[in-house]
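Actin family protein
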Amino acid sequence: MSSTDPILVLDFGSGFVKAGFAGNDSPSLVFPTVVGNLRHAKLGPSNSNDPLIGESALSGANVTVKRPIVRSEIQSPEDFYSIVNYIFQTLEIKGENNHILISRPSGASTQQLELITEYFIETFHVPSIAFISSAALSLLSTGRATGVVAECGYSITNVVPIFEFFGLEHARITANLGGQDVDLYLKSLLKKIGMGEADNNAVNEVKEQLCYVKASSTANNQPAPYELPSGTRLTIGDERFLGPEVLFDPSLNSIDALGISKALEVSIGRCDEFLKTDLLQNVVISGGSTMFPGIADRIQEDLTGSLKKAVNIIAAPERKHGAWVGGSIFATTPVFEQFQIKKAEWETQKEFIFRQKSFM
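Predicted structure tokens:
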């Protein structure tokens, strides 16, 4: 691989897509993982060949909006391809000269990896593609090789202990829990104080601007005023911390899953004793749903209380894009080439190529 060949780093989350070039500090392109098709009142969905992507789909009128990736799994290959096309067009990429690194969610199926590889190599003729564990990349973004990573995104939470960049799969915990569950629970709370059924944008705004995670050290909650687009004024009180609480107690919204702190406790408990101290001193949180103020203090408090040991939580400022940042770093290292699936290899060894080129 030539040192001048541009490497495109991609992180396809259920909530947001992050795209940009290796060596950069942040992605060039971040947009919601949604695809929209115009519809007409009498004619039904439009047959337009130009679907709306990201914010344009969410803000457009008469648009049917779909999420092509749910719980880290591609539900609609056609819509996924539309997202890839949008990235290539927006970043003015042709493909033939661009090596690709994709952040791979923990537990991603081989079938999904094959679908993605085939599209990139056979449609865009990229010279190579590599899938690197998103947990390992999130850990790398903090400059560490050993630790336990809790990734919490829009629809899924993965907890993965890692030793010298090797993921301990027997200890991985995956929960169908994320920001969308905070949205749903927060919406139910806000409806009780006067927010209308259709105020989804307002719910997201309250979540991002006013919500926080409560720990015992948190100061008493201060109610915050909020004005709806209709002009209705609300006072947001305990809802500010009760909404994100579902990430720690999923049963609040009837979700059968472990909360973040409990998932970390169980995952670390499955590891060998000699590793536990290192893991507890390197607990890395990553993903958009870890951006609530107070979340690091709460996790530390929970783990210290349950395990009776010292705990160190790493909550990097750039953790919202932690996996992408780690990918940007990893793609510039000499070892990256070992994990690239070249076009010739794909054509002759596709049946077992992922066993040979798997990182974690």
